[in-house]
Amino acid sequence: MLLFLSACSYVYIPNAAHIPLIAKKGEVSASVLTGTSNLDFQTAYGLTDEIALMANGSFANRNRVTDSASIHKHTLIEAACGYYKKVGRSGILEIYGGGGYGSTFNYELDNNYSVWGESKGKYAKFFVQPNIGAVSDIFDGGLSLRVCYVNYFEYHYLGDLWPASHNVFVEPVMTGRIGYKNVKFITQIGFSIPVMFSNNDALTFNPFILNIGLNFKLNTIKDKSLVK
């Protein structure tokens, strides 16, 4: 399913949801994932005991030739600031807000190698994302509800400039990580649901968020209680 969905040429492809579950000041979380959004890089840092910073990137440069040919490229860079709080020994609540800039390019041929779809666009993205989860040495798990405002301020379809398009997506996502301490394998599943429909029928979107990858954690501040 991951291979099939990542091969489709959608205009807007939601990036992997970042659920860092930062637990303390000085903690760094970094992930690399692949799936419906092709390739994602994620980093987060505990700036204080309550404030964390986040930076994400999503990239694709895909050429596929079967009975028809298609090219899909996209780039998305975003940053966010968030608040987090530990609950009990392993629970974590966090909320992030941020934004970014992205671009997409799609080029498709039919079976006769005639162009039937060519599009490119630039967009701004703003989001709010509350997360809830728990961490342990073996397993981390979290739920998020990302709400995104996507503004395609420049969009060309078959060579014509189309009107700007504003879209709102609600994206519930479930993420699990399993491994040992600082290195864990990630699986993620979610959906991208439009709640404010586009006035541009050419702006297709991927309704699924499916990713796998690896997560790494590092504590940059030593625990003084362990130092004699």
Polypeptide structure, described:
The protein has 228 residues and is an all-beta fold. The protein has a single domain (2-226), classed as Lipocalin (Beta Barrel). It is built from one helix and twelve strands. The protein has one helix at residues 2-6; strands at residues 27-35, 38-46, 51-65, 69-87, 91-109, 115-134, 139-157, 160-162, 165-180, 183-191, 193-196, 208-219. The chain has a ten-stranded antiparallel beta barrel with strand order 1-2-3-4-5-6-7-9-10-12. A hairpin with a 2-residue loop joins β9 and β10. The chain is elongated. It starts with a helix and ends in a 9-residue tail after the last strand.
Structure keywords:
228 residues; single chain; mainly beta; ten-stranded antiparallel β-barrel; Lipocalin
Helix content, binned percent: under 10%
Q: Pick out the low-confidence regions.
A: none
Secondary-structure element pattern, one letter each: HEEEEEEEEEEEE
Query: How many domains would you count in the coordinates?
Result: 1
CATH arch. level architecture: Beta Barrel
Assigned CATH class: Mainly Beta
Number of strands: 12
Q: What is the mean pLDDT?
A: 87
The CATH homologous superfamily is named: OMPT-like
CATH fold call: Lipocalin
How is this structure best summarized?
This protein is 2% helix and 68% strand. By secondary structure, the chain is mainly β. The model has no long low-confidence stretch (mean pLDDT 87).
Topology:
Blueprint: H1 2-6, E1 27-35, E2 38-46, E3 51-65, E4 69-87, E5 91-109, E6 115-134, E7 139-157, E8 160-162, E9 165-180, E10 183-191, E11 193-196, E12 208-219
